[in-house]
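Per reviewer request, we include the raw input and output of the structure prediction for the construct analysed in the revised manuscript.
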Amino acid sequence: MRSLWHRRGEGPWPWLAAGSVALSLLMLLSLLLLLAVRGLGHFWPAEVVLVTPQDGQPFAGVAVREERIPGEETRERLYFTGNRDLDGDRWRWVEVSAIADIRHPAELVVLQRSRWGEFLGRLVALEGNGERHTGEAAWPALQARLAELDTLRDERDRLRDDVVVPLVRRLEHADGSGDAESRAALTRANGRIRELQSAMGGDTLIVESIDGRRVEQPLDLVLRAWRPNAMSPLDKLGAWAGGVWRFLSEGPRAANSAGGVWPAIFGTVLMVLLMSLVVTPFGVLAGIYLNEVAHQGPLTRLVRIGVRNLAGVPAIVYGVFGLGVFVYGIGGTLDEWFFDDRLPSPTFGTGGLLWASLTLALLTLPVVIVATEEGLARVPDHQREGALALGATRMEMLTRVVLPMTLPAMLTGMILAVARAAGEVAPLMLVGVAKLAPQVPVDGDFPFLHLERKFMHLGYHIYDAAFHGDDVQAAMPLVFATALLLVLVILVLNLTAIFLRHHLRARHGAPSRW
């Protein structure tokens, strides 16, 4: 092998480069695999086991992980036991050697509730509308009633989000015209919501824990119910797909430790799109000016050095700048000029979607400028000289010859900026991101896109769920799932950049290095 290297005159460097690429791909795949297993595995209906310790009461739980006690040979297993309203906690460590028996009863039920989290136990009865279902008849009756409740909840949520909330905002900002009609519509919507709430109530689910404690659970607080030990693999696959879909389409609940991330997905994508609309023209024009228009003297070199140094400034510094200049400076001035009737409640003088997008545009501007300028510098001079020699003006030479050849570089800079902006969290904490904003900043009221509203972001959702929740252990699977979603978004953006760059390079004959 050594003689082969020396005969080619290349040495070990090609092999080292190939090994580095392989190692990078392996690390990326390992990261995605870890996030997928820990995140998407959370939605799989895991079996509920009935554990009987040697010196304690039996309990039902889902095995989470197993660890060895430091300094000892004993191993402990962590079980998710639910029933927080009964036990005050939903986690239990048990020594593996102290377990006398483990069984998998098919009748064990898992209830997903809007309060107190999951309940693990046995189904006793379902009461409602003057009927009482017990035994095996209670389970199909429960599933049928839950399906009805899902329909009622969807209608209630639609009325609240699409009718009540816009009407309330419209009345808050109304000048007197149309108030009577809006109030009448609001009254009708609230009346319908009360009817739906009444139709959802009245049913009681009686369940029992393993140690015999019974709970009378209002059925309208139960979201879903399943028997994991009695489900076939196909049933579990369907339940897993439903859980993933709810994660992508619903909003968060239980202090971000449960529910979905749809508002965070929407907020992240919308913020990145607005940031791209701002940073792309300014970054491209600045790069064109520095490379094609400005005199290449000491001042231009100084500006170029400053731009490259700005790319290394910590993100939190841009957040402080955005808070002081955009939020308090420009936003406060806009409130004094146009929204003085709403003061002291700020409209633009507080964090929002607009200021977050502008702050990240400022953060990513050096990346776009540098990429554009590097692309322009790699266009051969004879391309410019040939266009000018054929009678083209300088503007025609730039727009029809140079810029088409630089499009791959511009696209690379823009996608790198998008990838960085999608993962930034620190500046957003100061200029508009919110822990919980279930209403997306787009609706049917003029101007339809509300730039002054706060929004949710995938990166901040990960941070908040991992460090600020009341039960971090319960939130960790959703943290992994959200992290996987964020990584996939950035990965898709980068793959899109590669394919588009290849297409533009082949079409416009850009330099091969790009």
